[in-house]
Amino acid sequence: MTSIPKTDFKKVHRNLYTASAAPALVDVPELAFLAVDGVGDPDGPAYREAVEALYGVAYGLRFGLKKAGVLDYSVMPLEGLWWGAEGQRNLPEQDRSTWNWTMLIMQPPQVDVDLVAEFVAAAARKKPSGSLERLELRHLTEGRSAQVLHVGPYREEPATRDRLMAFINESGDRLSGEHHEIYLSDPRRAAPEKLRTILRYAVAPVPAR
Q1: What is the pLDDT of residues 104-119, one digit of tens each?
Q2: How many CA atoms lie within 13 A of 190 on its CB side?
Q3: How many CB atoms lie within 10 A of CB 102?
């Protein structure tokens, strides 16, 4: 393979992929993502298939660009947008089958629609899946957003989210986007109490009355 310098996009976008326990406002520019939509329990087979498809294509793109001498970089963390039935932001814990999600992995500027289609097709030849058929390149612009770092099990997120919501209210803002999570830790390798997850919401000023 051609030897080229390695780019760490977590450092390029440091303020978006690091956070502290103190909630803060950030400005999120337009970014490109591999994206796949789905519905259901995040412990269920549909979710696992979707994440597997995302990573398969993400690593295919990474190795393809490196082999072509275009770019060498690390695959970015998994991210998710979450919302309830009929657009509700509250996720009913008692019925996780109704949860809606879009799972995401950020992509470098060199990745375009045609390149994604090429590697989706390559992945489908190895292991076809409905998730690959839904996978696409999508550009998202969250703009003004509030975020905070949650450390610990996912089930303990509500307390951290409550602190973030209080910060948003005190800032004179309201929610303007879905619940966004960025998974900085691999749950297969990290102990639950050490999981690090960024919680983020796009926000907008409360309209003057």
Answers
A1: 999 999 999 999 999 9
A2: 15
A3: 19
